[in-house]
């Protein structure tokens, strides 16, 4: 089975806006140009790994290389991407503090759009210990702030294979909260309404149908706008016959194209190009892919004559096959967290490293479990403490103070071998008024942004079983 690792995409919602470069919008389950022509992704994942394939290490010690902040690299690579017939790239992590204007201009000059992940390796939702907190919220919204100005940005991925097997599907509640809050942020900031927020799932047949339903159930304010299906397969020596299948008449009725993994050669041997400094060389799969993409001519529909009668899916029940309840974590509130930190009597010592927090949390949880109630978060039960969305330092202060008070404010209860110290608590105001008592509403009652018309037309345009079967077929040729 010689095939690509594809991310096959379904579009779910969006509207049209105007800009110098044609803005891609979403209607029903399809992407469209402003003139009504359907848009199919012919994409390539574009992100070089740190310390792999000649990339070296980052000068600032970062865990990732921002592919859109290296002008020399972009000048070399973007024409090559265009020669592949690429009209979309996917980036997995960008640094919102850096300048992306040169690379974004080069992409626009070559008619290439972008879909970017919101996370980065050290700031993302952890499937084994999930949270949706102030730190993540700031990271995700900063990426939106940085990229929303560019007309060739189609949207963002709020998660990539976060839940990858049955025993960690509870993490999906936290990803869906990220979807809800990112969409609400885009609306509140009055950014382009065509900007979509999606999710990319792994190829696990035990959970993928429930994943698709969960992220598409309920109100449009918390539902994804597009769904990606990562389908890994053989690496080196690909013949790209699956490319023809993906853009065939049958599959183009469902899928809006795909994104090949990946441009840069890494240790996994999926690369199309071996980088060396700011240049490099094509690998054997490069030209065959270019030929396969050139032959692909998917037949789309006209937006004006297209209508979608799809409805949102029903949220899957929590049972032996699914572990995420439809009640979502609260929207992180930095003011509430700062309020609680200042109101805490026992706080982390100034020199305490974040890597040491876990041991203290574990000790408190083992000896005074109720001290963690205000910061607890459980995606399976849908129970969330009022301050579950706080940053780790604020959470620790809240837990330390609760533990200290449970031991009748004994000074020895705020020592932890010098890891905690007493402070004069600021009791002015009621911090609890700034955050909900449990979660931010169910997926069906949604968050802060409403919807109308076909904006919540979802995956159920086609049965999910058909989507899964076709996705598997795309990588099996």
What layout of secondary structure does this protein have?
Layout: E1 5-11, E2 25-27, E3 30-32, E4 38-39, E5 41-45, H1 71-83, E6 88-91, H2 101-109, E7 113-117, H3 134-147, E8 153-160, H4 172-188, E9 196-201, H5 208-216, E10 226-231, H6 241-246, E11 257-261, E12 273-276, E13 279-282, H7 286-295, H8 334-342, E14 346-348, H9 357-367, E15 377-378, E16 383-384, H10 392-406, E17 420-422, H11 464-474
Parallel strand pairs: 5-6, 5-11, 6-7, 7-8, 8-9, 9-10
Antiparallel strand pairs: 1-10, 1-11, 2-3, 3-4, 12-13, 14-17, 15-16
List its salient traits.
477 residues, alpha/beta, TIM Barrel, Methane Monooxygenase Hydroxylase, Chain G, domain 1, 2 domains, disordered C terminus
Overview of the structural elements:
Its main location: membrane. Residues 429-454 are annotated as: Disordered. GO terms for molecular function: 1,3-beta-glucanosyltransferase activity. Helix 3 packs across helix 4 (172-188). The chain has an eight-stranded mixed beta barrel with strand order 1-10-9-8-7-6-5-11, surrounded by four helices. Strands 2-3-4 form a three-stranded antiparallel β-sheet, with no helix packed on it. Strands 12-13 form a two-stranded antiparallel sheet. Mean pLDDT is 86; it is low at 13-19, 51-57 and 439-477. It has helices at residues 71-83, 101-109, 134-147, 172-188, 208-216, 241-246, 286-295, 334-342, 357-367, 392-406, 464-474, and strands at 5-11, 25-27, 30-32, 38-39, 41-45, 88-91, 113-117, 153-160, 196-201, 226-231, 257-261, 273-276, 279-282, 346-348, 377-378, 383-384, 420-422. By secondary structure, the protein is α/β, with parallel strands linked by helices. Strand 9, helix 5 and strand 10 form a beta-alpha-beta unit. It has two domains: 5-317 and 444-474, Glycosidases (TIM Barrel), CATH 3.20.20; 334-434, Up-down Bundle (Methane Monooxygenase Hydroxylase, Chain G, domain 1). The N and C termini lie close together (7 Å).
